[in-house]
Design goal:
By secondary structure, the chain is α+β, with helices and mostly antiparallel strands. The protein has three domains: about 150 residues, no CATH class; about 375 residues, Immunoglobulin-like; about 170 residues, no CATH class. It has 16 helices and 31 strands. A hairpin with a 4-residue loop joins strand 27 and strand 28. The longest helix has 22 residues.
Length: about 750
């Protein structure tokens, strides 16, 4: 039987093409949200490929150190000397070297002290007034005693703030090495009262100090094909860019101190007591719980000793980018074994009695679980240990060792916020052992590449931790992560645009470093994983990136390219919107139109026919749609006409009864109009609730906006009447205004009004 074609028409596309010669021609640049990122990306080359992998000509420099340190506890000073052997693996001749002097950020004449605007406050607490207007600034900074070559011949050098240029007597060629010596000392800062990523804390009850020491030695800058010398000054916010190398470090401290540091302790029997060695050997076989190496009782006895003798701890570390240590006579020490792949690692915690009972209960277990999760999600943790050190008001990371806050009240009690804050910061800082201590991104330029990526994985690890230890978390609750889920970044993305910067900004040049470098990129990656790509594609690509760039120096482009190359998902629109702009997400339901089948053209169709001069008989055979002329808010109360006899006639003429019985012929026809007040394109996710109470979820990809960035229309057909529609029902897109996310509109469904006055646009 001959079958006629049935057209279902809402809008007719029979408009004549306007004569191009009559159109006003204007030249435009491509502003489509889905255009390629070619303008933002550097061209691929032999060093870094278009796939995001290291190229065949990729290289990186090496810096090896032999360091001798003495900590003067009485005077709070560090004295040190080092021999640096720098190997040039680049294709370039190097006639000078750049060395970082990060302690100089605390020099009395440091520009970092006066670079920010300040004003007089209407009132000050006495301590702040004294610090602001009376006391002299802390006298920090390196005091360089000499810079010499390996034969003790003086080398010319010049100090520019936190950078020191060493002029070489002869340029270093490809594959050549150069060794030089530096001797220095500096005053250690009080990190609790004066700030800083390291320093000391004084405990007034026993007049002891705990030292967490980092950035304590002149360190080589990175040299690569991206920046040349990465000698951007250390102003305080942007962290560090460092080459890998081997470290031999000898640290002399009071004989009653307990210490941990980056690297293997090579003289353990010299610095451990016999009882400590016995406990240590037991810890190497304890996989289920920590073993106390130095007890609280022993630490409390040591607090009173103040030994005048000295002891030297010797550490050796291979293929690390930095070195740090912690030392005090107050420290309790515990350890346990962790199986990572086929190898045993040690989870370690170091803390004073002021950290208990929280630290003894939670620290080492958290270290163990973090190593396991990150290893599963990225690559097996390669170093032999991971150390969590208690440090008041600090969270900071270095290879194999990190400093973490979390302190109970004096009576040992603590709140849930304190507990979860401590567990969260330990997960975060141990996570940094992977990003950037191994996947060695440039923190000085791109804080989000370590902070944001790590915060994203931290969120995943926290949720797994909560599932594994429900007795630590609220019953039947998830771990209360403070970053990661989309809804937690909404307030930040809603503020005045004058106080926002793109994620792709230097950390020194943003207003709110926490949300910008930690929260927003973590949320972006979480949305990318859960909403845009899906977990399977995302996880494969992320693991590929992690393995490609472990022990190497990736750039943002290497990450962006790898995520696309390994997943076959075009993400240029996502990177541009989330990382290169300050646009926000706001998608709304503008209106809903309902149609019914009609045997005659409606007003809209009649107008088209009249404008185009189309006779009525030219439109057969067609099925017309007539639009209900009523407020879309009241559509759910209407009883629309069912399919007309015309439709039934057409079906009967062209199909058998058996064929018709197998057809799913809709009774209801809806057109949803979505608008986008916000600049970011995102998938459209809706829950459709029908009159019988059933709910259907539909998801349209972000590409639905590619040809109209302002408005999108979608047709919904059904045999059931729609009673309501909810946009972004799980709050997974970071939509800043949910007042336009439902039909019929719900009252008081959003906190948007409280900050609407600050919103962009």
């Amino acid at each position: 039987m001959k079958k006629n074609i049935i057209f279902l028409i809402i809008s007719v596309l029979l408009f004549p093409i306007e004569n191009i010669s009559q159109q006003k021609q204007t030249e435009k640049i491509n502003t489509n949200k889905f255009r390629q990122l070619n303008q933002e990306f550097a061209s691929p080359n032999m060093f870094r490929t278009a796939s995001g992998a290291p190229g065949p000509a990729y290289y990186q420099q090496q810096a090896d150190y032999l360091i001798n340190i003495e900590l003067d506890d009485a005077n709070k000073k560090i004295y040190g000397d080092e021999i640096v052997t720098y190997t040039n693996n680049s294709p370039d001749l190097l006639d000078y070297l750049w060395v970082q002097l990060d302690q100089n950020v605390r020099s009395k004449d440091s520009p970092s002290l006066i670079r920010d605007s300040n004003s007089v406050n209407p009132a000050y607490i006495p301590d702040t007034f004294e610090k602001e207007f009376i006391n002299d600034p802390f006298d920090g900074g390196f005091n360089i005693e000499y810079v010499r070559d390996i034969n003790d011949k003086p080398l010319d050098y010049f100090v520019n703030q936190t950078m020191m240029r060493i002029d070489l007597p002869k340029a270093i060629g490809t594959g050549e090495s150069f060794s030089f010596k530096v001797k220095w000392w500096y005053n250690i800062n009080d990190h609790v009262n004066d700030g800083g990523r390291s320093g000391y804390e004084t405990f007034p009850n026993d007049d002891n100090r705990a030292y967490i020491i980092a950035q304590f030695f002149p360190r080589m800058c990175v040299y690569d094909e991206v920046e040349g010398w990465q000698n951007y000054q250390f102003w305080g916010d942007g962290e560090f860019a460092l080459p890998f190398g081997n470290y031999e470090v000898n640290i002399t401290v009071p004989a009653d101190h307990i210490m941990e540091a980056t690297g293997k302790l090579v003289n353990r029997k010299d610095v451990y007591s016999k009882e400590m060695m016995k406990r240590f050997n037991k810890a190497k076989k304890s996989y289920d719980k920590p073993v106390i190496i130095v007890s609280q009782e022993e630490a409390e006895i040591a607090e009173k000793s103040f030994s005048k003798d000295k002891k030297t701890w010797k550490f050796y570390a291979e293929n690390v980018r930095d070195f740090a240590f912690a030392t005090s006579r107050k420290y309790i020490l515990d350890m346990m074994a962790v199986k990572i792949g086929n190898e045993d690692k040690m989870a370690v915690s170091l803390y004073p009695k002021e950290g208990n009972p929280m630290w003894e209960d939670f620290s080492t277990i958290t270290v163990m679980e973090t190593l396991k999760f990150y290893s599963d999600y990225t690559f097996n943790y390669p170093y032999h240990k991971a150390i969590s050190v208690h440090a008041h008001r600090i969270g900071m990371e270095y290879p194999m060792i990190c400093f973490n806050f979390g302190r109970p009240n004096l009576d040992g009690s603590y709140s849930d916020d304190e507990k979860f804050g401590m567990i969260g910061v330990i997960i975060h800082e141990i996570g940094h052992f992977f990003f950037p201590m191994i996947v060695n991104s440039d923190e000085r330029q791109w804080a989000w590449m370590d902070e944001g990526i790590n915060t994203f994985v931290q969120y995943l690890a926290e949720q797994e931790f909560g599932k594994k230890y429900p007795d630590i978390i609220y019953p039947n609750k998830n771990f209360p992560s403070d970053r990661g889920p989309a809804e937690l970044i909404v307030d930040y993305m809603s503020v005045d645009e004058n106080y926002l910067a793109p994620i792709m900004s230097n950390p020194e040049n943003v207003y709110s470093l926490g949300p910008n470098a930690y929260g927003k990129p973590a949320t972006a990656l979480n949305i990318l994983r859960e909403t845009v790509m899906g977990e399977e594609l995302f996880d494969y690509a992320f693991k590929k990136y992690s393995n490609r760039w472990k022990f190497k120096h990736p750039t943002p482009e290497d990450f962006f390219r790898t995520m696309e190359d390994a997943s076959a998902v075009d993400l240029d629109w996502f990177w541009r919107g989330w990382f290169y702009t300050t646009d926000f997400v706001d998608i709304g339901i503008k209106e809903i139109n309902q149609y019914y089948v009609s045997p005659n053209p409606g007003e809209e169709m009649k107008k088209i026919m009249e404008e185009q001069g189309i006779p009525r008989n030219r439109l057969r055979p067609l099925i017309f749609f007539e639009k209900f002329e009523n407020d879309s808010e009241d559509l759910k109360s209407k009883n629309p006409l069912e399919n007309s006899k015309l439709l039934n006639n057409y079906l009967s003429e062209n199909y058998s009864n058996e064929e018709i019985s197998k057809m799913n012929i809709p009774k209801f026809y809806y057109e949803i109009v979505f608008d986008k007040p916000g600049g970011l394109v995102m998938p459209i996710i809706i829950d459709i609730e029908y009159e019988d109470g059933s709910v259907e979820r539909r998801k349209y990809p972000a590409q639905v906006w590619r040809k109209n960035d302002l408005e999108v229309r979608k047709v919904i057909t059904s045999n059931k009447q729609i009673s309501s529609i909810k946009l972004d029902p799980d709050k997974e897109t970071a939509d800043i205004d949910t007042s336009n996310n439902s039909w019929p509109k719900e009252e008081n469904e959003s906190d948007f009004d409280k900050f609407k006055s600050n919103i962009k646009g």
